[in-house]
Amino acid sequence: MKRTLRTAPLAATAVGLATALTLTACGATDVADSGSAAAIEKDHKNNSALPVQNAQAQSQPNSHQSKAASDAVRKPMRRLWMPLPCGQKWRVNTWDAQHWPALDMVREPQHKTEGSTVRAAASGTVRFAKWDGGAGNVVQIKHSYGYYTTYLHLKKRSVKAGQKVKRTTKIGTVGQTGSNGNTPHLHFEVAKGKGNANHWGEDKGDKYRKVANLYPKTYNDNNGGGPGGGEWRNQVSHSCSAPKPTKWAPFKVVKEVNKRKWAGTKYESSGKLKKGKTVMLGCNHTRKPDGKLYRRLDGGGGADGRGLWVRSSTKYVKQTAGCSR
Ligand SMILES: [Zn+2]
After folding, report:
1. Whose C-alpha in 32, 164, 232, 281 is 20 to 30 A from the C-alpha of 223?
2. pTM for the model
């Protein structure tokens, strides 16, 4: 396979060294001609929102826990997430028109980068997990809707080709392997194509590369740094797992309360529950994000499709029967 060794262009160096960090642009794939960047962006605008499975399929209030893991793999992914542990902060860089739309990620602070856990950006099947001269340890996952994600320069791979993964499955650790991995970082790419087309490391594979739309942010090229260049500091991974409750109980709403979706680091409003309404709330898996108690609201929804959250203070809701199911 033909490879081009990517070294840090001047523009990228200026951005990357602004705070004396040593992150440099990398890339193991042959990059499509510069004219294609605009085409990808144009195409991305038409496809920027990943398809979301229909509401019927999302909402399965009666199938709790037991099949949860396998379902997570079988269900089509709802969106892509940062492939990094919940709550961690990372610096994301697209560098320039040649490297873009691939992302380089280093942890903040950067010295923690090497050995950090890399997680699947969504559920799918490992298409390959192998050694490559330029990319080092590389993993590619095939997702639904024709999406692929690829992870380069890994220190270690922890999945095998053909393996089913779900979002948050550990697939390896961040390293600097391969001749292009000149400093510890994760080189991450998103691709979209038809059928089983090869999307990485093959001739013209780069034409399938897509702008990374990692919930809740799209890393396009409008963040400075010149054409294709962009740098985003302190990007928090929202790829958090939250178990679905196994027991539920009816609660009566005694004061209007917000339904909230968990955005990984904070709750966001998602409608209201009117006073007098009776709802089913989870008996376990309450959370205390800000010293406040929350419970899962049965019936799907939420960023992870496992139910919205409701403040469970007796000021808002009162349990009217015991836990069941
Ligand atoms: Zn890179």
Report:
1. 32
2. 0.65
Neighbouring residues of the ion ligand 1, judged by CB less than 5 Å: 26-27, 104, 187
Q: How far apart are the CA of 316 and the centre of ligand 1, in A?
A: 49
pLDDT band at 184 (very low <50, low <70, confident <90, very high): very high
Rounded to the nearest whole angstrom, what is the distance from the C-alpha of residue 187 to the centroid of ligand 1?
Answer: 4
Domain count, the chain: 2
Tokens of 223: 């963040």
More confident residue, 211 or 13: 211
In terms of Cα–Cα distance, which of 15, 216, 185 is closest to 102?
185
CATH number at residue 260: 2.30.30
Residue 290 — very low, low, confident or very high, per pLDDT cuts 50/70/90?
low
188 CA to middle of ligand 1, Å?
A: 7
Is 5 among the domain residues? no
Q: Rounded to 10 degrees, what is the CA torsion of 290, 294, 299, 302?
A: 0
Q: DSSP 3-state assignment of 324?
A: strand
Residue 224, Cβ density class (10 Å: 0-12 exposed, 13-18 middle, ≥19 buried): exposed
Higher pLDDT, 163 or 28: 163
Does residue 211 sit in the same domain as residue 252? Answer: no
Distance 307 CA to ligand 1 centre (A): 36
The verdict on 64 and 203 lying in the same domain is yes
Question: What's residue 54's pLDDT?
Answer: 31
What integer pLDDT is reported at residue 112 of this predicted model? 94
β 164-165/147-157 pair status: unpaired
| Structural domain harbouring 51 | 10-236
Dump pLDDT digits (tens) for 144-180: 988 899 999 999 999 999 999 998 899 999 999 999 8
**Do 192 and 315 sit in the same domain of this protein?**
no
For residue 14, report the phi and psi dihedrals to the nearest 5 degrees.
-60, -40
Decide if pLDDT at 312 tops 70: yes
* 122 and 47 belong to one structural domain: yes
